[in-house]
Every structure is written in C-alpha cells, then in structure tokens.
Amino acid sequence: MRAALLTLAALAVSAAAPRAAHGDPDPRRKLIVLEYRAGSSALAGIATRVVTLLSKQTSLQVLGPDQARAVYGDQLDQVLVKCGGEALCIARIGQKIGAAEVILVGISELGDVILTMQRIQVASRTVASRVADSLAAGAIPSDAQIADYANRLLPPSDFLRFGVIELVANLTGAAVTVGGQSRGLTPIQALRLRAPATYDIRVEKSGYVPFSTKVALPPDGEIKVEAELSRRGGSDAWYQRWYVLAAAGLVVAGAGGTAIYFGTRDSGGPAGDGKLGITVIIQ
Amino acid sequence: MRCLGVFLAIGACGGNSSPTGSRDVTLTLAIPGGTLDPKGYTSLDLVLHGPAGDVWLSSSLGKDPVTMATGAAFSGIDLAPGTRVSIEATLRNDTGVAVGYGRTAVDAALIDESAIEVPVRRPIAYIAGAVSRDADGRASTPALHWTEAPATYADLAAGTRLDGKTQVGLQPAVLMIGAGPSLYMVTQAITDPNGVLNGPAKIVPISPADHQALPALDGTLTGAVADGAGADDGSTLVIATSTQLFAIKTAPCKPGPCAPGAPVPGMARPLTDGNFARVAVVTSPTGEIDAIAIKNRESPTTAACSASELWWVPVSPAIDSSDPVGPPQKVASGGFCDIATDRGHAYYVDAVKGDLGEVAIDGGTVIARSIRILPAIAGAANGKPTALAVSNGQAYVGIESPPATTSLLVVSTTVSADREIDQPRTLWSEAARQVVRATDFAGVQRQLDASSAAIDHIEIGAGDDYIALTTSAHFEGEPILAANFPGMTIDTEELHVFDASSGGVVQRYRSWCAGVLRNFTLGDIENWSCAAAEGQTAAARDFDHHINSMTFLFGKK
User: Fold this and answer.
1) Angstrom distance (rounded) from CA B485 to CA A29
2) Do the Cβ atoms of B70 and A282 come within 8 Å?
3) Of A17, A240, A238, A266, which is closest to residue A124 (Cα–Cα)?
4) Is the ipTM of this complex over 0.85?
5) Nearest-CA distance from B6 to chain A in Å?
6) Cα separation, A269 vs A279, whole angstroms
7) What is the dihedral of CA A59, A64, A68, A70, to 10 degrees?
8) Does A20 reach chain B within 8 Å, measured CB to CB?
9) Model confidence over B274-293: pLDDT tens digits?
C-alpha cells in the first residue's frame, strides 16, 4: 500500500520550494551545471543541453560539467557521487569553483526515467528551487521542455537580457526614435534595451537631414551610435544654441545638478518655431 | 505659472513666450500623499494620444535645485496649439518597472501656459470575494458555511509575493471597483449556506493614499452585486446586480447645489432592470458617460454566455451639455461573454460566434459589429472567448479550450492588411493542474488534471505594463482504491499577473483551493492539502477567499 502511494507521488511533477521573496539575484552570477546519475544511462548529454540553453537565454556565467571538472580536478565525479545529491555537499563543490549557484541535474530510473534539477545556492547551502519530471523510457525532452524546466528553476529576472545603445548626436533637441518608439530629444541617456534584437534608429530635427541606421544589439553588449545631422542650409545664431542657454542657466542658479532639465529641454530650434513644451512636476 | 528653476527662469517664466518661441504646458502628476504613493521612480514616460497619432516622450527625472520639486521637461513637440490629447503618464524605477501610472479622464487642450493635472497611482491589483468553509469539519461531506472576507491586493510596484495578508482594511468586501484614480468597495450580506449575496449593498470609498475606508455613500443597491465599473475621473460608478443596473454619482455637484433633476451624489440611480453580470464604462472625449453591459450571462437552462444580451445604457451627458441622456437599449442577443472599453470605444467577445466585436453607432442606431473571428488556440478548434480587456488598440482575450486549457490571446482591435501586424499572439496558455498532498503521509501526493477551466476577468494595469487575469478551475479525481485515494472534487481560483512586454509572470497567486472527498471508504486518506506549483504562491491559512472581482486603479477592462 505504502509503496503504491510513493510510486504515485514519484510520478507526479513535483512542486518545489518557493523562490526568494525579496530581490532578484545578480543576473551575471557564476553558475555551474553538474550531472548526477543514479545508475542510469538515459538522457545522455542532458546537462550540456541545459548549459547551452542557459548560455543562450541568460547573462549568467554558466560552466558545464567539463569546465567545472577542469577547475575542480578529476576527482569531481567521485565527490559528486559521494554527495548523493545532498545540497550541503554540492554547495561545497560550488564554493570551491567560485560559483554562486549549482544546478544539479539528476537522472534515475524507476520504471520511467526520473529527471530532477535542483538549484542549490552556494552561500546558504540550500535548495532554492527544484523541478522533477518523469519521462517515458526512451523519451528525450525537447528544447522547449528544457526551457520550461529552466524557467521554473531560475527567477524570471535571469531571462531578461539587455544591451545598451548610447546615442550621441551633434545636435541637441533632435527627436530620437528607436524601434519605432520615441525616446525623447537629444541629448539622451544611454538606452537599456531588450537584447538580442535589431533596432531601427532615427534622429531627426527640423531643418536638418535626418540620420537613420539599424543596429543589431547583442545581449550584454554596448553599441555607441554617433548621429551626425547636417544642416539643410544656414546655421544657428550663437544665442540659439543649447549650450549657451545651459551655461546661462547655471549662472542664474549658481549650482549644478540640473542635468535633466538641460538634458531634455530643446532650446536649439529656430526662434518662434511655435512647438510645444511640457514641464512635468510630481506633487 | 510656477517656475521650476534654472531653465524655466530663462525660458517659460520669462514672459508669455520662451526665447525659442515654444509654448509651454505644465503637467502636474498628482500623487495621493500617503503610504501608497508611488516610490522609487527615476524616469517618466508620457504618451500624448492626439487626433493625428500618438507622441511618445521619455525622460529621466531630475530635481529642481530651487524648489526641490521632482520633474522633467520636454520640448519641440510638434502639435498644433489647442490640440486636444489624452495623456498617459508612467513613472518607472531604475529597472524600468512601472511604479506609478495615471491618465487624463477626458481629452485636454494643449494651450500655452495651461496647467493639466494627472493623478498618478501605484499599480495595485485588488481582488475580492467570499469564503466557503467546510461546515462540519469533515472533508467527506459537502456542507459549506459561507462567510465574507476583506479584499486583498497585490502591490506590483513592491513585487512582494502574495499570501493574502495584504488586506484593504478589515471590512468584508464583495466587490472592488477601480474608477480611474479612485477606489470603491461594495459590501453586501451573504446567505448561508448557499452563498447568495442579498440585502442592500453599500458603496464605501477607499482612500487611495492609505486604503482607509471612508464613510459609505448614502445610496444602496438591490439584487446580488455582480460587477462594477467606473468613469476615469472617478465621478461615476455603474454597478450590475442580479436585478438591475445602477449608476452612482460619487462626486459632489459643481459649482454649488445640484441642478433640479440631476443625479444626487451618493445615491444609486436604477438605469434598467434585468440580471446583469458584466458592465464597463465608456467615456467619450467630450465627457459623455455610457455603460455597456451583459444581461443574462448566466442562464438557468443553457450554458453560460449562450443566450445573453448586450446592452447600451447612456449614463450622463457630455460636460457642458444639458441634453437628457437617451434610453437604455438592447444592442443584440447572442453569445456575449465579456465587454471592455478603451479610449471611447466599447468592445465585446461572443463565445458562440467566437469573435471580437465593437459596439458602434450606425445611422443613429447602436449596433454590434464583428471585427474578427478569433483563431483556434493551441490546436483546439472549439475554444471560446470568455473574457476581454482592451488597451490602446490591443485586445486581450481569454480563451477557454476544452477540456481545461486557458489561453490569453493578444490581437489588434483593427484589422490590418499586413499579415505580420495582424497576426494574433498567444501570450500565455496552460492546462490547469493541481497537486494535492496527503498531509499525514509525507511524500504522498496526487496530480489532478482539471475537467474545466476558465478565465473569468482580465484587466490591464499601469497603461499597458501589466496584464492581470483571474482563472477558475474544477477538478474531479476518481477514487484509486489501491492507493486509498478517495474521489475528490476540488475548485481553485487564481490571480495571474504578466509583464505585458515580455509575457513574464509577475505574480501567480492561488487565492482559493478547496473541495470535498467523494466515495470515501474506511481507510481512505482523509486529510489533503493543495500544494503550490513552481512559481505560485498561495493564500496563508484563513486568508484565502474566492475571486468575485479584480480591478486596478486606472485599470482597463
């Protein structure tokens, strides 16, 4: 009777400990993926597939079993077997390799192939989350399934990847559009955007030839775009130029720290252009 | 006009026009001034919805060195003087998370030197509902004892995991209504043991600053309260009950006493009779307020949403208009299952036709006009739309596919010839499952696949940043004699909140999981508890409740 109950329990996809309630971990932390087999040869290369997926979809520094072995030494596999999946012991391996977390991929067979993944935090030596699934003999989890496991194992913040586009223009007050979305007027702060992605960038200002380009932003990459807008004809009077007004403003206020007002306010247009300004106050 | 330090000392405050000749409008983002103020904001997104399209503006926030006011300034905006726009403002923190959001209730004219105020509120999702406990302490008997509970909320800006302990006061609520920047709670008695709401319902304004309950409005409602919605300026509520549709003017008459015949503030005004289950409020750019409602959504003889009626109910005339409002009118009969409004437009989903449509005026007659047939979801050709929210031209449709898969589809409210733009996206799809654990036997658990599941409510929060939906699922587990598992009937109710841009899960909270054991025989395992799935949180003991309503301040549904 008891055995029957335990079998039913083992076949269910297990729930796991809830994730940390407060604060997301460093999305660039070092994480190692280790593989532990309890007498099963099923799912060959599963840990490597996890490593490949995490390397593609996160900014984590992911080390696979081979890289971990190179750092730890050849005795890694023996130590891993001795650990028997116990979190405290696995955390010690992670500590020696300098990782913040260890994902232990376990494969065992109980009729079906039981695949477990534990995310062990090295500092606290505890299991932060756990995923288990039972697979029919011979079944191989798809990439989507592995991605699903990873999504349930790691916090959502690990899967948000960004790159930075720094846009520098030779004019202030030029309207910047990135990916079809207005981003304000130059000078603008560096833009932190989802990556990998390709963005169309357009910088335009009345009286100038618009600048447009397309950039492929890699995850964790930083791209500097220098937008040179040339005058269609004529030139600014000195008193219309942004930096003159900014300097005058500093004289009036006698203090700095107002970069945002200078940084977003366009003063470079022709006098009497009649365009709208909006001043926003939070009260 | 209030001067804002360095730049404005030279520019806008120097006279009627700045040195550049640009025109200035002051936009005040008004936060309530309490513990629920938006916090941690470092940047601002503004969207100006104008007649010729949208203008998107974004800036970091800075402090004025003289007044120490936090703000930003934009210029070079290419809009003609006097252009009327609706404005959306989103405050974000360093990681881009929306921590405050607000919008104008009606279109505002961008006139030089004018001042516009936009109230801004923290993105908080509120849920409310009753509690049905085991009446006799035995899980094997179906007797229930119905009680009520305070509404609970998810503060999305704080990002804390829900356990039901964040409550709106101590007073039990059957319904929460977000009306633009204002929050209202509806209270009503519940009948035990059948759980039917009865008696007069009261409306209690809730302070958006600290969730304190304010004195209840004078008016009362009859019939079991089912749904509510409010105008974006918080001045008007429309509430659906099992017997009537009511309008309540919440703001005092201005200026001075109310005109003869005008709605009395605080009093409930019946609009039309009938069993109404869903209502949404549509405000025209000129301030005219109308309601769109679904009558007979639940049918005693046929399936839900199979023989319902769509109603158009004028509530109040345009600002500065003294014309009387027209009579309520039935727009159509059909499979209307949910309704939504967005910037002066009203939409519906029809579960029988499987389409998304718009309520439109054709030759002076209000009609239901189909926009598009919704596609099959996850290969299930017989999926049907049961819930809807619309924001900025994007319709979020909840699809129920037998036996128990629920999906959230995003589709444009306008049909485009560009197939890529026109392609609907599935934001989320899931077959409902629940693991139950034998509390007396460690490691013994049972996974149940739902026999039915539905998306009940969808609402868009903080502009288009958050999509919240509630689901309910029903599970029937047959007895397993060999394992001493009795038969089980379990119902669950969940709140899901997604990040609209990535589809990532922001909150997944199970507010309710309870049931009864069937075919119980001696020796069967009697004590079971519902397990939380990966990424899911559940209500703490005695903080669980059903989800009868879900709303955001400045939500769109």
Assistant:
1) 44
2) yes
3) A17
4) no
5) 5
6) 17
7) -110
8) no
9) 999 999 999 887 888 999 99
